[in-house]
């Protein structure tokens, strides 16, 4: 089955530690995204990547880093510089084909990060 | 800039009631419009979409019509079920690279 997987589903971290969230897709999509969702709120864009080895900052990139070494994978590192990292993190991908300028995004199941 | 404004929740209805969740947008050009649904503890799922004016998106009994004259994309369902309880997000895409999401509307359906 094609889809997007995120692991782990739940993650606990001590203050001051970096942690990496995994996102993998087998949909052959070019673009991938990371969002943060806080309780009762909408989605805020952290980083996105439209092609391998390239990525752009979203609206709240401070304290986060990403890499895009393979088309299928877009891991997110939450660094100790992120002051309030407890949140639900969602990864998404999009085909972004030339024929369709406005592609919908497909989401993974999310990772809930809690800082202890 | 582009933005999406949707009805604040929570919205609580009885089973079989009629549902409307309002969504209006501000955008340059001709955006595509989407409704996503999020069940508790899960990611977002695309519910329906419309890519041009007067298009009607529909899925699972839900409908929304792209109204350019009123810049709206209201979500409707004629008879809701308990299983429709979720958070609903209106969104727009005006470029190939990004989608802008509304703040979400929590819907609760009473048996």
Keyphrases for this structure?
heterodimer; A: 116 residues; mainly beta; seven-stranded mixed β-sheet; B: 111 residues; six-stranded mixed β-sheet; four-stranded antiparallel β-sheet; 12 strands; globular
Characterize the structure shown.
The complex is a heterodimer of chains A (116) and B (111). By secondary structure, chain A is mainly beta. In chain A, 0% of the residues lie in helices and 48% in strands. Chain A has strands at 4-7, 10-13, 19-25, 31-37, 43-51, 54-57, 64-66, 76-78, 87-94, 106-107, 111-115. In chain A, the strands form 2 sheets. In chain A, strands 2, 4, 5, 6, 9, 10 and 11 form a 7-stranded mixed sheet that branches. In chain A, strands 1-3-8-7 form a 4-stranded antiparallel sheet, with no helix packed on it. In chain A, strand 4 (31-37) and strand 5 (43-51) form a beta hairpin. With 111 residues, chain B is mainly β. Chain B contains no helices and 12 strands. Chain B has strands at 3-6, 11-14, 19-21, 23-26, 32-38, 44-50, 56-59, 62-65, 75-77, 86-93, 100-101, 105-110. In chain B, the strands form 3 sheets. In chain B, strands 2, 5, 6, 10, 11 and 12 form a 6-stranded mixed sheet that branches. A 4-stranded antiparallel sheet of chain B has the order 3-9-8-7, with no helix packed on it. In chain B, strands 1-4 form a two-stranded antiparallel sheet. Chain B starts with a strand and ends with a strand. The A-B interface holds A 4, 6, 31, 40-43, 45, 48, 50, 90, 92, 94, 96, 100-110, 112 and B 31-32, 34, 36, 41-46, 49, 51, 89, 93-99, 101-104, 106.
